[in-house]
Design goal:
It contains 16 helices and 46 strands. With about 775 residues, it is of the alpha+beta class. A 6-stranded antiparallel β-sheet has the order 3-2-4-9-6-7, covered by helices on one side. Strand 35 (about 640-650) and strand 36 (about 655-665) form a beta hairpin.
C-alpha cells in the first residue's frame, strides 16, 4: 500500500544567518512573529513595520532521511507561496510559481538537506511585468502578474502583507507497482437513481502489471480494469436521498471508497464524500431582461448569500475548527449561499466539507479580481494547470454549485478605462470566455459556469446591466444613499454593502494604548477604503446628526447605518422575487481587525449587521413599503394569517389600526395594500406591521427630523440575560455585550420597542451580571439623533 508520511517537524527558516524554528504548514510572517523578530502586524501600525518581509528571499530547510522498501518515493507539496526553488542534497528538483496548485517530485533513492527557497513575490511579479508589459488594475500593487492570493498585496479592507512559505501540507509518499494519480468523480441523479462515475488515472512503476479498481458507495460495489493508465468505474445507488441546500431539505452524504488493486492486492485508496443533487443556472430571457437563478433538484432558489474573503491574511492559520465556527455563523444568520471571492484562494477541503454538512451552497470564483491579467506565458500555462487541478479536486462536494470566471474584470474592461490603456494587449478575456469554460465543460459538466461577476451574459449588454445576469451595486455606498437601492430591481445582486467599524472589544485589542476616535491614527490605518471615513460620515449625515467628538456615539450610529443600509437592499430585492433571484452581501467576514463591510469582524465578533441578516434571511419576512406590505415567504409551505397594521405617533399613541388577511404561497411573495388612513404623515408618525411574531416598521422621515422622545426603560439582569422594559418608544436598542466583557456575546442586535414592550437579550461569557454595567452597554437613538 502507498505510505504517506507528513513532513511537519524539523523545519527551520533562515534569517540573517540564524536558524529560526519554522511551522509547516505556515508562512514567513507567522514564523517571524513566533520568534519575536517582528511585531504583530494586526496591532496598531504594525503592518507598516513588517513591509520589508515581502521584499526578501526566504529559505526553509530540513533533513530528509533515505527511504527503502518501495519502488517509488515522491515528495508532495500541496501548496507553495509562491515563486520557489526546491532542492534536495543540492540537486534541483524544480521551480514553482503558483500558490494555487500542488507539486510532486520523484525523490527515489535521494536523501539529505531539503531546501525550499522563495524569491520575493514582488521580484517575481515585477519580472513578469517587465516581460509582458503593464496592465491596469484597481490597486497599484503587481498582483495580476503571478498566481498568488491577490489580497495579500492589500485591498480596500485588507493589509498589505505579502506572504511567502509552505502554506499547505508537505509529505513523502512511498509506493510500488502503481498509485492513484487522479480521480474525477461525476456525480449525478438519473430518474431517481444516484450515479457516481469515477474516471481514474494511475501512475505506474511497472508498466506490465495488470490493474483494476474497485469502488464502493452505500453498499453498491463495482470493478473496472485499468487500461494502461486510466479506467472508468460506474456505480448506481437506487433511491439515493437528495442533498439539499439548508432550509430546503436534508444534507445526506455518502462515503465513496475507491481501491487500486494488483492481483487483488490493494496498492492505493481514494476516499471522498459525495451528495446526490442536480444543479442548473436558469439564464432565460423574459420580459424583465435576462434571468440568473440557481435551480437545485428542480427547485428555484432565491439565494440568501454572503461574499467570503480569506478568513485570515495568513491562510495557513485557518484551522478546520475555525472554518466550521465561521460557517456555522453564516448558517445561523440564515445564509444559504457563500460566494468565495476571486481575490482570495481556492479554500481547503475543510471549508467545503463544512459547507456540505451545513447545506451552504458554494459559488466559487476562479482567483482573478479587479485587474487586467496577461494571457501570455508563463501565466497562461499556470492558469490552466491550477484550473484543471482545482475543478477536479472540488468535484466531490455537493455544496459547490457554480464556477465563476472572475470578479469585476469584464466590468473593469468596459468602464474603468482599461480598454484604451490596453491598446489591444491581452487582459484575461480569453480566460473567462475561452479557457475556463472549456476546462469546466470538459472536466465537470455537472456544474454551471459563468464568465464573471458582474456579467450580463454577453457583450450585447453592459457587463453590469441590472436587467441582465449578475449585478454589483456600488454607486450606493460610494456616492448614493442606501435608499437608492429601492430604485431598481436587478436580476441577481452579487455584491452590495455598507461599512461599519468592528466591535468595540476588537478595536480595544487591536489599538491598545490609543485613545479611540474616528480619525485617530490607528483607526485611520485600519480603514483601507478610499475615503472610507468620508463615506461613513456622508452616509450618517443623510440620516443622523453627526456626533462630533463622541466616539462611542459614532461607533454605535455607524453600526446602525450599516444594518439599515443592507436591510434596505435585501428587503426591496427580496420582495421582488422571482424577478430578483438572489442577494449576496459584501461581505461576511474579515481577515484582520478593520473597518469594513463585514457582518463578522476580524476577531470573529458579530456586528449588528449579522443579527439583522438573521431577520432579513429568515424564511419569512415582512417589508413595509409606501402603501404596501410585502409578505415574503421562502418556506416550503403556504403562509397565511392576519397582518396587524398600526399607525402610531412617536409618543406612543395609536392613531389608527386594522387587521388584514394575507396569503403567501410557498416560495412566493404576497402584497397587502396599506389603507390610506393608515399611511403615516410627517416625521412624528410611523407604521407598524405585525404578523406571527414578525414585525416591520416604516418611518417616512430621516431620523434627524424625527422628534424622538427621550428614551425611558428599565434594565434587569439575570445569569445569561439582560431584560429591557420600555416606557417610551425605544428605537434601535443595542446591547454591546463586548463592552461588558471581551468574551461576552449577545444573541440579538438592534431592536425597536414600543411603549410597554420588553425584550430579553441572551448574553453568554459574562460572569458578573450587573444592572449598571448592562445599562452602560445599552445604546439607542435619542432626541437629536
Amino acid at each position: 500500500m502507498l505510505q504517506a508520511t507528513p513532513l511537519t517537524e524539523g523545519w527551520i527558516l533562515r534569517h540573517e544567518g540564524e536558524e529560526l524554528p519554522a511551522v509547516v504548514p505556515g508562512c514567513v510572517h507567522t514564523d517571524l512573529l513566533a520568534a519575536g523578530v517582528i511585531p504583530d502586524p494586526f496591532l496598531g501600525l504594525g503592518e507598516t513595520e513588517v513591509a520589508w518581509v515581502g521584499r526578501r528571499e526566504w529559505t526553509y530547510e530540513r533533513e530528509l532521511a533515505p527511504s527503502n522498501g518501495h519502488e517509488q518515493t515522491d515528495l508532495v507539496l500541496d501548496g507553495l507561496d509562491t515563486a520557489a526553488e526546491i532542492r534536495l542534497d543540492g540537486q534541483l528538483l524544480g521551480r514553482t510559481r503558483n500558490m494555487h496548485r500542488s507539486y510532486r517530485f520523484d525523490v527515489t533513492g535521494m536523501s539529505g538537506r531539503l531546501s525550499v527557497r522563495f524569491v520575493s513575490a514582488y521580484a517575481e511579479a515585477e519580472a513578469v511585468r517587465g516581460k509582458l508589459g503593464e496592465r491596469p488594475a484597481a490597486y497599484a500593487e503587481p498582483y495580476q502578474y503571478l498566481r498568488k492570493m491577490a489580497c495579500s498585496f492589500g485591498w480596500d479592507w485588507g493589509p498589505t502583507l505579502v506572504t511567502a512559505g509552505i502554506w499547505r501540507p508537505v509529505r513523502i509518499e512511498r509506493w510500488s507497482t502503481a498509485r492513484i494519480a487522479r480521480v474525477r468523480p461525476l456525480v449525478s441523479v438519473e430518474q431517481g437513481v444516484g450515479v457516481v462515475e469515477l474516471a481514474v488515472e494511475v501512475e505506474r512503476a511497472r508498466v506490465e502489471a495488470p490493474l483494476t479498481v474497485e469502488a464502493v458507495v452505500d453498499g453498491v460495489r463495482a470493478r473496472a480494469a485499468i487500461d494502461k493508465a486510466s479506467g472508468v468505474v460506474r456505480l448506481e445507488v437506487p433511491q439515493a436521498r437528495l442533498w439539499w441546500p439548508r432550509g430546503y431539505g436534508e444534507q445526506p452524504l455518502y462515503d465513496v471508497v475507491l481501491t487500486l488493486l494488483h492481483e487483488d492486492r490493494p496498492l492505493d485508496v481514494w476516499r471522498r464524500r459525495v451528495g446526490f443533487r442536480t444543479v442548473e443556472l436558469d439564464r432565460s430571457a423574459d420580459e424583465h431582461g435576462t434571468g440568473f437563478c440557481l435551480v437545485v433538484n428542480g427547485e428555484r432558489i432565491f439565494a440568501r448569500g454572503v461574499n467570503w474573503i480569506p478568513d485570515d491574511v495568513f491562510p495557513s492559520r485557518i484551522t478546520r475548527e475555525r472554518y466550521r465556527e465561521r460557517l456555522r455563523q453564516a448558517a445561523g444568520a440564515g445564509v444559504d449561499l457563500v460566494r468565495v471571492w476571486g481575490g482570495g484562494i481556492y479554500e481547503s477541503e475543510d471549508f467545503y466539507d463544512a459547507c456540505d454538512e451545513l447545506g451552504l451552497l458554494v459559488w466559487q470564483d476562479f482567483p482573478f479580481a479587479c485587474a487586467a491579467y496577461p494571457e501570455e506565458q508563463p501565466l497562461r500555462g499556470e492558469v490552466e494547470a491550477e484550473a484543471r487541478e482545482n475543478v477536479v479536486r472540488l468535484m466531490p462536494h455537493p455544496s459547490l454549485v457554480l464556477w465563476n470566471g472572475n470578479n469585476e474584470n469584464l466590468w473593469g474592461f468596459r468602464d474603468w478605462g482599461w480598454e484604451a490603456r490596453l491598446a489591444g494587449d491581452s487582459w484575461g478575456e480569453g480566460y473567462y470566455l475561452g479557457l475556463l469554460p472549456r476546462v469546466v465543460a470538459e472536466l465537470d459538466p455537472t456544474r454551471p459556469y459563468t464568465a464573471g461577476s458582474p456579467w450580463s451574459g454577453s457583450w450585447e449588454h453592459h457587463p453590469n446591466d441590472p436587467a441582465h445576469g449578475t449585478h454589483h451595486s456600488w454607486e450606493v455606498w460610494n456616492r448614493l444613499d442606501y435608499t437608492e437601492y429601492r430604485g431598481e430591481v436587478p436580476r441577481f445582486v452579487a455584491e452590495f454593502g455598507w461599512q461599519a467599524p468592528p466591535a468595540y472589544a476588537t478595536l480595544a485589542r487591536a489599538l491598545a494604548g490609543e485613545e479611540l476616535a474616528a480619525d485617530s491614527p490607528g483607526m485611520l490605518h485600519h480603514q483601507k477604503a478610499d475615503d472610507g471615513n468620508g463615506k461613513l460620515r456622508r452616509g450618517l449625515e443623510r440620516h443622523f446628526a453627526f456626533p462630533e467628538g463622541d466616539f462611542d456615539r459614532w461607533h454605535y450610529l455607524t453600526q446602525v447605518n450599516q444594518a439599515r443600509a443592507v436591510a434596505a437592499g435585501i428587503e426591496h430585492w427580496r420582495s421582488h422575487w422571482p424577478v430578483c433571484a438572489g442577494t449576496v452581501v459584501w461581505q461576511f467576514n474579515d481577515c484582520w481587525p478593520v473597518t469594513s463591510w463585514s457582518a463578522v469582524d476580524g476577531d470573529g465578533r458579530e456586528k449588528p449587521l449579522y443579527h439583522e441578516l438573521r431577520r432579513l434571511y429568515a424564511d419569512r419576512l415582512l417589508t413595509v413599503r409606501e402603501r404596501v406590505v410585502a409578505v415574503a415567504n421562502q418556506a416550503g409551505e403556504e403562509w397565511a394569517g392576519v397582518l396587524r397594521l398600526r399607525r402610531m405617533s412617536v409618543e406612543g399613541a395609536v392613531i389608527g389600526e386594522a387587521g388584514l388577511e394575507f396569503r403567501a404561497g410557498r416560495r412566493a411573495v404576497a402584497e397587502v395594500p396599506v389603507p390610506d388612513e393608515l399611511e403615516p404623515a410627517g416625521p412624528k408618525e410611523f407604521l407598524v406591521a405585525d404578523a406571527d411574531g414578525l414585525r416591520a416598521l416604516r418611518f417616512p422621515s430621516p431620523d434627524r427630523e424625527i422628534p424622538y422622545p427621550r428614551p425611558e426603560f428599565e434594565v434587569t439582569v439575570a445569569p445569561g440575560s439582560v431584560t429591557v422594559t420600555a416606557h417610551t418608544l425605544v428605537r434601535d436598542l443595542l446591547l454591546q455585550a463586548d463592552r461588558l466583557d471581551p468574551a461576552a456575546r449577545a444573541d440579538r442586535g438592534l431592536v425597536t420597542l414600543l411603549p410597554g414592550e420588553r425584550v430579553t437579550i441572551g448574553v453568554s461569557g459574562w460572569e458578573t451580571p450587573d444592572p449598571d454595567a448592562a445599562r452602560s452597554a445599552l445604546y439607542c437613538l435619542e432626541p437629536g439623533s
